């Protein structure tokens, strides 16, 4: 590590700190993902009565190309 003028001990310590930081951030991200997943499971999607009964068909037709292009 001559470019940074670090001794071997400093380079080792820096590497350990950076790896520890990455592990911590990964752990925190997984924890948030699990929490979000739990919240999503608790919220059940209920169909709205304001929608037309043909609403699903509109969605299907949205992807159809009428002229076959």
Structure described in brief:
Keywords: Membrane, Transmembrane, Transmembrane helix. This protein has 69 residues and is mainly alpha-helical. The protein has two helices and no strands.
What percent strand? under 5%
What structural category arises from helix and sheet content? Answer: mainly alpha
Question: How large, in whole angstroms, is the Cα Rg?
Answer: 27 Å
Count of all domains: 1
**What spatial form do the alpha-carbon principal axes imply?**
elongated
Oligomer: single chain
Report the sheet with the most strands, covering strand number, pairing sense and barrel closure: none
H/I helix tally: 2
Low-confidence stretches: none
Distance between the termini: 59 Å
How do the helices and strands follow one another from N- to C-terminus?
A: HH
Q: Helical amount among residues, as a percent range?
A: 55-70%
Transmembrane segments: 6-25
Keywords: Membrane, Transmembrane, Transmembrane helix
Plain-language structure description:
- This protein has 69 residues and is mainly α.
- The protein has one domain (3-64).
- The protein is built from two helices and no strands.
- The protein has helices spanning 8-42, 55-62.
- The termini are far apart.
- The mean pLDDT is 80.
What structural keywords apply?
single chain, 69 residues, mainly alpha, transmembrane, transmembrane helix, membrane
